[in-house]
Amino acid sequence: MRISTSDKDRPTSAPSQKTEERKRKLTAFLRQEALAQGFDLCRITLPDSIPEAPARLAEFVAARRHGTMAWMEETLERRADPRTLWSEVRSIVMFGLNYGPEEDPRSILDKPDRAAISVYARNRDYHDVIKGRLKEIATRFAARAGADVKVFVDTAPVMEKPLAAAAGLGWQGKHTNLVSRSHGSWLFLGSLFTTEALEIDTPERDHCGSCRACLDACPTAAFPAPYQIDARRCISYLTIEHKGPIDPDLRPLIGNRIYGCDDCLAACPWNKFAAEASEMKLKAREDLKEPSIAFLLTLDDAAFRSLFSGSPVKRIGRDRFVRNVLMAAGNSGRSDLIAPCQRLLDDGSPVVRAMAVWALSRLMPQAGFAALRAAKSNDEDAEVRAEWQMTEQC
What we know:
This protein is an alpha+beta fold. It is 41% helix and 9% strand. It has 18 helices and nine strands. It has a five-stranded antiparallel sheet, with helices on both faces. Strands 4-9 form a two-stranded parallel sheet. Helix 14 runs parallel beside helix 16 (350-363) and helix 16 (350-363) runs parallel beside helix 18. The radius of gyration is 24 Å and the shape is elongated. The mean pLDDT is 93.
């Protein structure tokens, strides 16, 4: 989004004292607007404040740790410097919205008949919520300042976490996510770029110390070293971004996590200092806190779209979602899930049929599964046949 004003509406040059007063007033106005829109944090940095971030990103991509997220490589140069995205930007305003849960989200991991959906995805899509609020702020700020503005939420090639750290919202922890002294690891981020010069905040220093709670909490060992992540082993990547077959060695480690993973965030000790969230915080939908795996296995495309209307979960589509649910079913050890998994062997989606094979290979008695393999293994899809063949080697 960009809001422009004509040149005649722009402020003229003025003595330094007047310029500084203008900065102060406009900065204070932005902070007031941020609070009015329910944001918990609002701080400002310069577009050249993250000189080390591009090299780190290039190293991450060169090591192929971005997996199949080709867009990261395609937008590498544009991400390197905010001024490449918009050459006229003079100040970057970073906003943080607390989405911390009311309870430890890891408690559901001990309930094998229930599916774990990441905390951030248990209500409306945060992209839409935050962008709507930022547009309100941008409109008022542009009218007040006579400046141009653009707002971004996650989907644009903006390195939000390094910019948020440079602005002082927090620091990038060893799990690579932003950590705040006041809100722990639970912050949605958004940004407002403007041609206006504003008061600049100081960065927050790293407070992780010797702690490695987030690293040790990862079920799939996705952190090759502190402050580094390999997306190819990250459950959030595997269950959301990854479209193909999931590494069979990683499947048992994913447990009942069907959309994202909160383990490294929930393990952060700074969460205990989290301030009370704004009244405008997104509250989790009750039906998405602990949904039944058996129920989710019954979803066709229409039912999936209805259940997740307005939710970020809807973006991955029914087939990939049911693939994830089948993986959770296979990890559950529950015989009552055999029947719904078996019905999905005839599903129209190859990715669903393939994961149904894997789930049944773990749930069914050996003799019964061998008989099923003899009847069903000649599938028309090569990936499904490969899944059947893999079970013969087990």
